[in-house]
Amino acid sequence: MRARARAWTGRLMARRIQKKGIDLSTLSFIPEPTKVPLQRTGTEPVPRLAELRATDPVHRLELPFDFSVYLITGAEHVRTVLADRDSWSNDIRHLLPGTGGASADDIGGLGFTDPPLHTRLRKIITPEFTMRRLARLEPLIEARVQRQLDVLAAAGPTADLAKLLSFPVPFQTICDLLGLELDDRDAFARLGVQRFDITTGAAAAFGAVSEQREFLFEAVARQRREPGPGLIGQIIREEGEAISDVDLAGLADGVFTGGYETTAGMISLSTIVLLGDPASAALVRDGSRKDVDRVVEELLRHLSVVQMAFPRFARRDMDLFGTPLRAGDVVLASLSGANRDPRSAGASPDDFDPARVPTSGHLAFGHGIHRCIGAELARMELRIVLPALLRRFPDLALAVPPQELAFRELSFVYGIDELPVTF
Questions:
Q1: Calpha distance 295→301 (Å, rounded)
Q2: Half-sphere exposure of 82 toward its Cβ, with a 13 Å CA cutoff?
Q3: How many whole angstroms separate alpha carbon 127 and alpha carbon 239?
Q4: What is the 3-state secondary structure (H, E, C) of the chain?
Q5: What is the distance between the alpha carbons of residues 9 and 31, in angstroms, rounded to a whole number?
Q6: CA 39 to CA 244: how far, in whole Å?
Q7: Which long-range contacts (CB under 8 A, 24 or more apart) does 41-48 make?
Q8: CA-to-CA distance for 39 and 53, rounded, in angstroms?
Q9: Of these four, 28, 42, 195, 352, which has the most CB atoms within 10 Å of its CB?
Q10: Lowest mean per-residue pLDDT among 8-12, 128-132, 136-140
C-alpha cells in the first residue's frame, strides 16, 4: 500500500511539474532515474553506475521536469565539465522561486556561485586553507583526537564510533576555525545529515539548509558587532562592509557543512574498510607518513563520500562528447562513478588497493574552480585520526556483522550514522 501511495504521489507531482515548472524546495519525491548515482550496497556503488560509464557515459535521465538532465560517469567526461568555467553555471537559484521551504536567499556560498563573485569570495578564504596555514591546527586536532579516544574507551567495550569520534573531531575543528560556539550539537548533527538526504525528496533537505543558514546569519550579525577570533571575525575585520551578510553567511555555511559532514563520513567508512583489510590497517597503524598518505588517498578515491558534484547548467547550446545539449540543460557529474573508471584508476578499480598507481589523480574533492577548498584539512584529519584509532585499539572490530550496518540510502554525502565497534 505504501508503494502504491508513493507511486500515486509521484505521478501527481510529475503532472504538476509539467504544468507549472519546478521548485526544488517543494519537491517531495525523487524520480527513480536520479537515484542511481546515490545508491550503494555497503560502500560500493551499484553496478548500474559502471554499466552507464561503459555504455552511455552521457546518459539522459528520463524525468518529468521541464528541462533535460544528463548524468556523466566517466573520469574524462567529469574532468572536462568541471574544468570548463565558461560553458557552465552553478547558480541554482532559478529553481528556488521561494514558494516552498527555501528561497534563493537561502542558497549561496562558493558551491552555487559563478565568477566573478565566486572568484572574489574564494580569494577571501583560500589563504586560510593552505597547507602552511593549516599546519597550526595539527597539534590541536591531535589533542582533540586523543580526548575523543578517551571518551570512546570509557564508553566501551562496545561503543558508537560515529557518535564519539567520527562526528565530534571534524565538527569541533571546523567550529574552532570559523569561530562558532554551538551548544546543541545533536541538532546540528541531525541537520547536517538531513540537508544531503533526498530519500523523501528535496523539500526536507532544503528545509534543513534554511534552518542551518538562519543560525549562521545570526552568528554573522553578532560578529558584525563584535568580531570573534575565528575566520568569520577575521573576514569581517578585513573586508568590512565590502562583503554582505548574505555572502559571508554563505561562505561560512559552505566551510561549516563541507568541513565536518564529509570528513565524519570518511572517518567511519574508512574504519569499516580498514577493519576488512588487516594488511592496510597495519600499514596505517605502523607505517611511515608516506604509507599513511598513500592509504588515505586510496580511501578517498575508493569511498568518494561526496557522490556528485554541484549540478552544472549549460550556458549555451553545445556538443558534449557527441551528445547535443541546449542552453539550460543540466549535467550531474558522478564523482563516485568517475573514481571507479579503469581508464584513470587503473586495473580493478572496484578493489581497495593502496599500492594502486592511477593514471590521474582522483576526483573525491571535485575538480576545477569549485574543487573543495577544505581538501587539505580533510586529509590532515584523516591522517591524524586513523593511525591514532588503530594504535589505541589494536583489537578494534565491528560489533555487528557488516550486513547489519545501516548506511544512508539516498544522500549526496554518503555515510553511516551509527558505527558500533568493540575493542
A1: 10
A2: 27
A3: 14
A4: CHHHHHHHHHHHHHHHHHHHCCCHHHCCCCCHHHHHHHCEECCEECHHHHHHHHHCCEEEECCCCCCCEEEECCHHHHHHHHHCCCCEECCCHHHCCCCCCCCHHHCCCCCCCCCCHHHHHHHHHHHHHCHHHHHHHHHHHHHHHHHHHHHHHHHCCEEEHHHHHHCHHHHHHHHHHHCCCCCCHHHHHHHHHHCCECCCCHHHHHHHHHHHHHHHHHHHHHHHHCCCCCHHHHHHHHHHHHCCHHHHHHHHHHHHHHHHHHHHHHHHHHHHHHHCCHHHHHHHHHCCHHHHHHHHHHHHHHHCCECECCCEEECCCEEECCEEECCCCEEEEEHHHHHCCHHHHCCCCCCCCCCCCCCCCCCCCCCHHHCCCCHHHHHHHHHHHHHHHHHHCCCCEECCCHHHCCECCCECECCECCCEEEC
A5: 11
A6: 38
A7: 42/402, 42/405, 42/407, 43/269, 43/272, 43/273, 43/302, 43/303, 43/407, 44/350, 45/336, 45/337, 45/340
A8: 15
A9: 195
A10: 8-12
State how far the alpha carbon of 398 is from the alpha carbons of 56, 158, 161, 162, 421, in Å. 38, 9, 10, 12, 4
C-alpha cell at 294: 598513500
Integer Cα distance of 331 and 307 in angstroms: 14
Q: Which of 266, 283, 277, 296 is nearest to 383 (CA)?
A: 296
pLDDT band at 63 (very low <50, low <70, confident <90, very high): confident
The residues with which 41 forms a beta bridge, in sequence order, are 44
Nearest to 416 by CA among 34, 29, 40: 40
Is 89's pLDDT higher than 90? yes
**342 CB-contact burial (10 Å; exposed 0-12 / middle 13-18 / buried 19+):** middle
Pair type for strands 330-333 and 312-314: antiparallel
Q: Which three cell numbers stand for residue 22?
A: 519546478
Q: Cell digits for 26?
A: 517543494
As a whole number of angstroms, the distance between CA 167 and CA 256 comes to: 13
Burial string for 344-363 (b: 16+ CB within 10 Å, else e) reads bbeeebeebbbebebeeebb
Residue 161 identity: L
Question: Mean of the pLDDT values across residues 318-336?
Answer: 96
First CA to last CA distance, the chain: 44
CA distance 330 to 108: 19
